[in-house]
Write a structure and sequence with these properties.
Structural Genomics Hypothetical 15.5 Kd Protein In mrcA-pckA Intergenic Region, Chain A, 14% helix, disordered N terminus
């Protein structure tokens, strides 16, 4: 799905393939902090294909069934943003002098975005 909004192009890739660490998968699938994710995995609240897993580095992929306390986890889809940013706006999460591109966006969890260097 592609949306245009005032110089912003937002592209969603709903069906995608992934291969990632279990802790990252749980983070992308929930609103838990990284510490909470680590605690849940350490306490064996997370299972992969019906088997409790306590190793955060376990690799998971789209064919695995990952559950937290019996609830199936599904990661949020990747989102790619293309923005024609105004001058004097930084591609940074935080700056004390200039506004950041994140101040231009009305999106959930802007801290989860990664800004690539161009």
């Amino acid at each position: 799905m592609v949306k245009f909004n005032a110089g912003l192009l937002l592209i969603y890739y709903p069906g995608y393939h992934y291969h990632m660490r279990l802790d990252r998968f749980v983070s992308k699938s929930t609103e838990l902090t990284q510490q909470q994710v680590s605690d849940c995995i350490a306490q064996a609240y997370v299972s992969v294909n019906g088997v409790a897993v306590t190793d955060e580095a376990t690799q998971v992929h789209e064919n695995n069934l990952v559950q937290l306390n019996g609830q199936r986890l599904v990661p949020r889809p990747f989102r790619y943003l293309l923005l024609h940013k105004p001058q004097q706006t930084l591609c940074s999460n935080v700056d004390g002098v200039h506004p950041s591109v994140f101040s231009l966006l009305d999106i959930e969890r802007p801290q989860s975005f990664i800004l690539p260097g161009v």
